[in-house]
Amino acid sequence: MAVIVQDGLRRMYVEGEHLFYYLTMYNESYLMPAMPKGAEEGILKGMYLLKTSDLKGSKLRAQLLGSGPLLPEVLKAQKILEEQYKVAADVWSVTSYKELRVDAMQADRFNLLNPTGTKKVPYVSECLNSTEGVIVASSDYLKILPDALQRWLNRPIYGLGTEGYGRSETREVLRDFFEIDARYIVLATLTQLVQGGQLKADVLPKAIHDLDIDPAKRNPLTD
Hints:
By secondary structure, this protein is of the alpha/beta class. It has helices spanning 2-14, 40-45, 71-85, 97-113, 123-128, 144-147, 171-177, 182-195, 203-210; strands at residues 47-51, 61-66, 88-94, 134-138, 157-160.
């Protein structure tokens, strides 16, 4: 947050840009992870690598994207994937899907209008296209936000988000209802690995049971 505030002050009062910033406040207290060295640029551009996997030598790989208060759930999913399913998962903190998309569209526009020039590569492509493994994103935003980055990625991105109407229940119940907590991140990751032929399909029914997920639960899109 301090990096974003400092950048905003510089752009407004030093460079004279006409800007306004808004802060999103959450009614949840959780320990903020330490900022990795060299992450300042990524924070401002929209995403940065927060935590690489501690699991070495695994052929099963994943890139997990988290936003806001769902980031601890993504870190929890990383641990479950590593310890229970031997999936080496890296965690990315997404600070702004909007900034990632705007940067990508700017790169597209430059490349369109300068066909003989050096091609610009969107920042999100730089971050993810050289990595290995399936990509799963979870946030308390709509699924359309991670989906909006798909055209600049070299493989599918599976988005988990809060579709449907709001509820006034506990955080745990809400995250289960919208299917965005650590359990669903794990299941989505395993599903992508199965679809890619890297895992056998029989891992999924067992995972649903072990993760205590109810396949017959209410559908957040319609219920």
